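DATA SHEET
Item: assembly model
Revision: 1
Owner: S.N.
Input lines:
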Amino acid sequence: MQFKQFEPINAEKHEHEIVSVDAHEIENLDIQALDVQELERRLELATAAASPAGWEIFGPNEPI
Amino acid sequence: MSLQSFEALSSPPFSLHIQQEIEETRKAVGRLLERWSDEVALTSSSQVTIYEYYPYLFLKAFPSLTLADIRPLNLASRLFASSIFRYDKIMDCTATVDLSTSILFTQARQLEAYYLLHQIFPPKTAFWERFHDYVVEYAKACVYEHRFASGDQPWQEYSEAVALQIAVGKNGISKATIAGLAELAQDDSLLKPLIEAINHFNIACQMSDDLLDWKEDLYSGIPSLLLSRIVHERPAQGNNEEMTRWKDILAREIYYDGHARYIVELALESLERADGITANLLGFEWHTITAKLRHRCQALLQDIERIVDANLHRVRSQPKFVLTLPSAQSQWQEIIWDGLRFIVQQWRLGFGEARHIMHLTQEEEFSTAQEYHYGDVFQRALIADALCDANELLHDQFQQVIDYEASYLVSCRLTSGIGGWSYFSSVPELAPDADDLGQVMQVLLRAGRKAEVAEYCETPLAVLLQDNVRADGSFETWIVPATGRTPQQERQVQFNQSKWGTGPDNEVMANLLYALMLYDQERFTQTIWHGMTYLESQQQADGSWVSRWYYGSYYGTYVCLRLFTVAQPNSPTIERALSFLRSHQRDDGGWGLKDESDPLSTALALLGLATAQECNSHTGDLNRVERALVYLQHSQEDDNSWPSIQFIRPRMNEPYGSRTITSTYVVKAAITWNRLLENVSVNKSDIVSGAKQ
């Protein structure tokens, strides 16, 4: 895995910090242990239709 | 980039009059398309987009116009927008219906839209010149993008400037609405700033969607600013295995190298510019839409940064662990080894796959601004419990991982109120519960940390068993004091009544009572006895138990069986439950929630059946177990895991499932049966050697 330093094309317009973590520091970490599954599921939830899920209230022992 | 379509609010931000107009327009679309064939007239998506009511967003800028003036333009705008979205699917090769129908679909809508526009705007008016320009600009952007999508032009050249130009062009036909409104009002004065605002808004939507859809874009070979930052050539299509490997590598770069953040920040910056231009020009209708997109981007950015930081922190501090497994001696061991390898891999990743994420909003009266909540206490306690089983099998090899997990669970306890554990600790309206308490207690006790049970579990246990017990021996799932409640606890009671539901839940009771058995059977004899009497009364006629929080009957039946087996092994309840399990095995050897078998139900049923063997050395299920083994072998995924199956049901239509959890139960069942079958073999050999003597 190569961590590239990207220069924003429109640097004067978008003065963002590009790299979240110092590249040297990241290289010393166990890259394979950096999880993306949770992040991907978070994206999926953002994509999901905003249909409000309903609440269904039950008495004792009644299943949904 | 796939064309963006920012979904609308479930209730558009309009007055009743405008909402009625929108509904009328919807009906008018239906009437106009009646003459076309059903396939062509069919609406492509049930999702409501802002193009259902686009002109109304700009109403404030053209005060001379009435609702009736805008109605035909809205109708034409809707028809044209849906045609453009279908074009986009055709060009991206992602249309779900055949090409000829798709082309006719777009043709029908464009014809009807042009027909309407010709009735509204006379020829040679400025509207047509502008509309013409926007369509040309759109076509140029599509052609330009196609050069990258086809591989003719390297993605290295898909610069930010190019990406923004394509985003503006491809989404540019929406500007025709402003041109139409200006023409109707005979007022061009706000045309320029409004079009500039639309361009910024379209860029914001596009950037947001480019992040959300990055995998689809990658698999389809469609360029986006996000992808072009990390991929310099169009990826070769067709090799799915290679693409999957690539996808994982790229995902790490997207999140951990700051590209996701860059794209979302770009979206936010564009929104800010759009808002800056329109602050005094447009009304709350427009600003509600931009606020929603901003909120979505900010929440996403915040969560991405939090998860990335948490993972970096974890990777720095988590101890190294190497799993060393001998050659598998049986087919059950093969399953155990495969499952353990997967679980250890997930442990190394921080169990992100198993974490439950739930969306709870202030619109639903939840108090925190944070809308996405993350919970893994219960899941990790379940996994740690299975690792305790594995630890016994593998001579303490997992002790380090179990210790790490036990410490994690302790660190997640609530430090205010009565303590205990909440399923989502970031939701103040969610009380600590007996299920989490019981599961954590089991792990701490099995991990040899009884002192921590005494320190951290006694208070919530006391509140549960003193304040939340009913006369019939049952107790509530939610642990809230009966008197002297804090404002937060009062609110939890309200939410129990209005959202989560109150009353005892069989499976929760069985889990907590089992923990009490492990903790101090003698001290809790009365509670356990009364609770089991209640559970006996709740057993269904078919021998199963109904679960409130879990899909199907197998989890509830397993945890009840587990309790009865250790607390009252001669209870006739056990045989009734076993009959239920035996009678529900399918021809393929598995058990399932609906029409098909699934590995989670199969593992839970196997764990239930194992209790018969453990109770009275009953060996009549061996054939069933062999068939289940074959099913589990066949339901295994390529990466040695078992698929995610609906497990926990926090509320309607929001099932929680996880590959890690399914694999955990498969491993637990396999360890149990591997041990039991070894004992059967030993007993058989004893009998044989005894007979020889």
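QC remark: Confidence is low (pLDDT under 50) at residues 1-24, 49-64 of chain A.
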